Fold these 2 entries.
Entry 1:
Amino acid sequence: MNRFAGGMALLLCWALGGTAVADAVSRGAYLVRAAGCIACHTDAKGGGPVLAGGRALKTPFGIFYSPNITPHPKMGIGSWSDGNFLAALGHGIRPDGSNYFPVFPYPSYAAMRAEDALAIKAYLFAQAPVARQNKAHDVAPPFSWRWTVRFWKWLFFRPGPWRDQAHQDARWNRGGYLVHAVAHCGECHTPRNFLGAMKSSRFLAGTRDGPEGGIVANITPDPKTGIGGWSTADIVQVMRDGTKPDYDNVQGSMAEAIRDGLAYLTDDDLNAIAHYLRTVPAIENSLQRQPK
Ligand code: HEC
Ligand code: HEC
């Protein structure tokens, strides 16, 4: 190869490499929204910078504070390798080998494809680093002990990517992937046991003990207590702007999940989610407040 051809080849590699990175960043920008990372990792109430953490998450076990996930080398995750990132999202494991608390919804993200997780990392690393110190969780023992998570994981955590089902079409499989892995609808809509694990047999059946102690709707296709009476278009509409078929608006954490995430999804993806939801097992679960 002469020098000119060598130079051209190098230039071509550089250009292609650059395109691949730009492509990952833009796919990551989309996925970061779909996955709700921004809502949870931004202290919007306290006026904190985007993705720099500090948002309080109230749980029955105490208050957790999301960490800074900007690429700041010391206060964020700027020094992390791809392997560190995949271990965190896919297995709930910290760079030092200890465990994350499952309030970080890795039990759902574990089903995300590695290429999608790495696109999210590419996006995060393309943002400006923010110097903001992480805040310690306000949780009492034994729930503050990270080593106890080992037993929790042994009991409840089944990692592994979402697997497309050959007898279903592409829309159903895309919807299932988004519902289970990326948009993690079950983390809020599935009731939990006394150790905070999702009851998989009650998938999406709703709960009275939602993220802010509020009611989270039953979104299984049960005609009486779920959304069995909604059309696919009705379900798409609520995810796009929060409007329900009765013209009421969703509130609280759902309104936030829409504003910072679901509202940005393509029509195809919202349709896929709605289509998939109509095929999950219908579960009767009335969440009306009991009269006092
Ligand atoms: C429901 C709130 C919530 C959502 C949604 C969420 N996280 Fe987190 N995340 C947390 C909490 C809380 C922790 C800290 C857990 C701990 O201390 O064990 C955490 C920890 C992390 C960490 C480890 C940081 C460190 O310094 O060790 C990374 C990386 C991370 N999240 C990335 C993400 C990404 C990427 C997304 C979106 C795909 C996301 N998170 C979505 C709440 C959330
Ligand atoms: C952060 C928690 C959270 C996540 C994540 C979440 N939801 Fe919700 N969702 C809620 C809450 C809380 C309500 C009840 C809002 C209200 O009553 O105003 C709700 C309400 C709804 C409703 C309206 C049901 C009705 O009968 O009024 C639909 C439909 C819905 N969610 C679908 C979804 C889908 C699909 C996903 C995943 C793509 C999802 N949600 C993810 C918290 C969440």
Note: The mean pLDDT is 93.
Entry 2:
Amino acid sequence: MKRSMLINTSMALAALCSVGQAMAASPAPTPYFVANCANCHGTDGKSVTPIMPKLAGQDREFILETLRAYKAGTRSGTIMPQLSKGYTDEEFVQLADYFSTVK
Ligand code: HEC
């Protein structure tokens, strides 16, 4: 009993420490899958052609809502509606956090 309480306490402490680290991290951590967007939107979302929308520095809410709309089928497009279906909402949040903080 005592031993398991000690283990629980140290696990809780470890969890608290990692939360602290995540909150201190700035800018947003780079999700490994941002590279999936680079072929079309450019490295770090810095599009090199005017026909491809730039993602770097875009408004976070805009990116998030646009991705959700593509997935929900309420926004049309040639590529993004299909592509967005491969990502979870949590991943959309990570992508929006990341691209909106790229300078
Ligand atoms: C195969 C090329 C391709 C890839 C890969 C791709 N996109 Fe796109 N993206 C497009 C095109 C083309 C559009 C314009 C809408 C359309 O036709 O689907 C677009 C539009 C967007 C828009 C709307 C931008 C605006 O200003 O209207 C967002 C946000 C976006 N993409 C995010 C992403 C993210 C995040 C990824 C990576 C997970 C990604 N895209 C990967 C081709 C791509």
Note: The CA atoms of residues 71 and 82 lie 7 Å apart.
